[in-house]
Amino acid sequence: MITLTSGQWNLVYNVFSFGLVSMLACTVYTLVSQGRVLAKYRNALVMSSMVTFIAGYHYWRIFNSFSEASDGMMVKVSGDPGAFNEAYRYVDWLLTVPLLLVEVIAVLALAKEVSKSLITRLVPASAAMIALGYPGEISNDQNTQVMYGVLSTLPFLYILYVLFVELGKSLDRQPEGVAATVGRLRLLLIATWGVYPISYILGMGGDATAEQFVGVQVGYTIADILAKCVFGLTILKIARMKSMAEGMKDDH
């Protein structure tokens, strides 16, 4: 059990609530925006909606788990039953992170061979990154935390290489303005993903303190909102730009 101040407890509670409503709002917005892009780009928007819907469901579970693990300002963060369940985040990431990468490829509408090559490299690497991070997240041993943190960084670095080197080769064939926006999209992805290891490091060092718990939960939630909602809205912007460049009239 850890004891939070009233301000800390309310901060975590409100951040989880904000994360939940952000995911739900983005899901609705990207779904109703399907008609604003050409048919070949709608798969990217569908995947964006799936990402935020899956995340919204898991934030609902996280929100409930935090409430159920709380007894006043005291929160049970480890041990069964009734402890705060961090596994919801990792299940969410295992599903949504590969989809995030696939939606980038989908919105670019690359040649089938190129898309297949990128997907077969990025999806397994992203799954490995998440799977290797979880044992360190739930461990109270610092050496174990460091080991799995390093191991999960290896596929992360490989994803960076594919996104910046391999995907970069295809950007010259994109309409004017799209390449620059995709370039910013990749930077957004890396910047937001960079918050996750920072939050992971905040939680290292044995049993969590109140400050560590709050820092990790707030950091992960902010990163999720940026990496899923803001990212999804940028995907919509790219799909709109490409649709307009290919002759779709702006009736909306």
TrEMBL record:
Gene Ontology terms describing biological process: phototransduction
Report the GO molecular function annotations. monoatomic ion channel activity; photoreceptor activity
The membrane spanning regions, by residue number, are 12-32, 44-60, 93-111, 118-134, 146-164, 185-206, 218-239
Where is it found, in Gene Ontology cellular component terms? membrane
Keywords assigned by UniProt?
A: Chromophore, Membrane, Photoreceptor protein, Receptor, Retinal protein, Sensory transduction, Transmembrane, Transmembrane helix
Q: How does it sit in the membrane?
A: Multi-pass membrane protein
Subcellular compartments: Membrane
| Family (UniProt) | Belongs to the archaeal/bacterial/fungal opsin family.
Protein known as: Unannotated protein
